[in-house]
Amino acid sequence: MGSGQSTPAPAAALPPTAANMGADLKTPSKDPAKPKPCCVCTDEKAERDKCMLFSDSDDAQKECSDLVLKYKDCMAGYGFKI
Question: What's the pLDDT tens digit per position in 3-45?
Fold first, then answer.
């Protein structure tokens, strides 16, 4: 090897390719992706809101309690605590 020839660099010394440069930056998630609360139970929420806003009763909370419970149950099914 004393003739001035150089040996190729080991593979570990080569720069990373563009395809795998971001691979180390991503951290694996332990929990599966959870939907946003605004994106689930939209029908139940709309029924609850309509009842509460347009109720002719003196006690809209009591009148709409079944729809509120239905909405809470739906949200709990997605892992949200209300």
Answer: 566 666 555 555 556 555 555 555 555 666 889 999 999 999 9
Confirm or deny that 41 is annotated as ligand binding.
Answer: no
Residues 6+ apart with CB under 8 A from 8: none
Is there a binding annotation on residue 38?
yes
pTM for the full model?
Answer: 0.60
Helix axes 42-53, 65-77, angle to 10 degrees: 160
List C-alpha distances in Å: 3 to 6, 7, 44: 9, 12, 81
More confident residue, 52 or 34: 52
CA distance 27 to 76: 28
Burial class (CB in 10 A: 0-12, 13-18, 19+), 64: buried
